[in-house]
Amino acid sequence: MNSIAKSVLRSVKHGRAAWLRTSSAHSRKQRFHRLVLGIETSCDDTGAAVVDEAGCVLGEALHCQKEVHLQSGGIIPVVAQQLHRENIDRVVQEALCASGVSVAELAAVATTVKPGLALSLGVGLHYSRGLVSRHQKPFIPIHHMEAHALTIRLTHHLEFPFLVLLISGGHCLLAVAQGVSDFLLLGQSIDIAPGDMLDKVARRLSLRKHPECHSMAGGKAIEHLAQTGNQELLTFQLPMQQYRNCDFSFSGLQNVINNAIVQKEKEEGIQEGEILSCVKDVAAAVQHAVAVHIIQRTYRAMLFCIKNSILPSKNATLVVSGGVASNQYIRKVLQNLADANDFALLCPPPRLCTDNGVMIAWNGIERLRAGLGVLHSTAGVRYEPRAPLGIDISKRVEEDSIKVPKLKEIRWLAS
After folding, report:
1. Cis-peptide into 194, omega within 30 deg
2. Mean pLDDT across the chain, nearest whole number?
3. Is 160 helix (H, G, I), strand (E, B) or coil?
4. What phi, psi does 380 have (nearest 5°)?
5. What is the Cα–Cα distance from 243 to 56, expressed in whole angstroms?
6. What torsion, rounded to 10 degrees, do the Cα atoms 172, 76, 212, 290 define?
7. CB within 8 A of 340, min separation 6: which ones?
8. Torsion angle (degrees, nearest 10) of CA 135, 81, 361, 19
9. For residue 93, what are the β-bridge partners?
10. CB of 20 within 8 A of CB of 83?
């Protein structure tokens, strides 16, 4: 472990870093037959929850590492791993205690095993192996993105199929959910995720030095400042305009933005690390560019699905989940897009858009009911840092070469 990681961990042990949330919103007198414990450790949040077949969350707990990683300017995998190790048992016990359920009463344990940070995934899998072995419980390995996609079926009555846009700090993809474990991948980011890009732009703008943003994560700081900025003062050229597919490139967009920031710093005569006087306008323009890029690719996905009868031509649904789905401007833009194409837009509540144990437990319930991937031995189960979701038909999307409306009309949707 390097000196930076050790320094961050020392600050945690002095009590300045992480928080724990527990809740129980279920009457303990009402008990359905099958209960699943979900465990989530794919990145920097340690989550656990108990959910029943009716979709009732009996109890949950979450240990968030956000404050720790804000100090270091990004997630240090070995620090995340150590914090998972220190907190996973406590989080699981908090969730069980809040639910009034013992491990003996569980029908299964569901745990994220892919994709994510290898060191973080390993902690959750190791802990779960011990738990199911001691109590002789079935184990359900969970795909993190599948869990995000299916969370909406916990909060809304929604039948398959539906279009899914997953946008977070670690992932960005468009897929069609045809069943519990049946997905068609339409497109994904070819480089970094939108949340990662927003965090990097926030660091480049030194937003932690801004008096309104010192305790905010990068994406939240961009969203906050953008509320009072003028997005029209800067226009960024969007990436991948020549490709008629549903893939994204946020690294390409970040490069364009970084060049614009350098130019603004020269105009104002300041050095990197100082705050631009027009920082709110830059934040607004950045947020708008991300929204327009997302709209354009999602629009093509809608048209492709309707053209190929993958989704019904009437009453189709777009589900948006992941941490970036909590951005209210991006959500509004997607609502405009959905309305213009006669799609219903559904989003889980913000607390279920970010990583949590509830979505893992619910995915476990869905798989348990469908009889999919319920294991009675953990032998051979491995974590997978990289793991595609479903069947990749992105080449077919590109071959269809569907033209979306002109960029001016796309920008109108985001206005």
Report:
1. no
2. 91
3. coil
4. 90, -10
5. 44
6. -20
7. 413
8. 110
9. none
10. no
For residues 378-393, average pLDDT = 96
Sheet holding 316-321, edge to edge: 343-346, 316-321, 162-167, 172-179, 182-188, 391-392
Residue among 173, 196, 190, 199 at smallest CA distance from 319: 173
Question: In this predicted model, what pLDDT tens digit does every residue of 311-354 receive, in sequence order?
Answer: 999 999 999 999 899 899 999 999 999 999 999 999 999 899 98
CA–CA dist 306, 316 (Å, integer): 9
Query: Is the CA virtual torsion 113, 119, 120, 122 positive or negative?
Result: positive
| Model pLDDT for residues 161-172, shown as the tens digit of each residue | 999 999 998 899
86, two tokens: 């220190």
Do the Cβ atoms of 268 and 288 come closer than 8 Å? no
Segment 366-377 shows an average pLDDT of 97
CA–centroid distance for 365 within its chain = 20
Tokens of 237: 């050229």
CA distance 46 to 83: 8
Angle at 59 between CA 53 and CA 64, to 5 degrees: 120
Strand arrangement of the beta sheet that strand 139-143 belongs to: 19-23, 57-64, 45-52, 35-40, 108-114, 139-143
Question: Mind listing the pLDDT tens digit for each residue in 61-91?
Answer: 999 987 777 777 678 899 999 999 999 999 9
Helix, strand, coil percent content, the chain, rounded in steps of 5: 45, 20, 35
Contacting residues for 66 by C-beta, under 8 A, at least 6 apart: 18, 44, 217
Per-residue confidence (pLDDT) for residue 85, from 0 to 100: 97
Instruction: Give yes or no for a contact between 280 and 207, defined as CB atoms under 8 angstroms apart.
Output: no
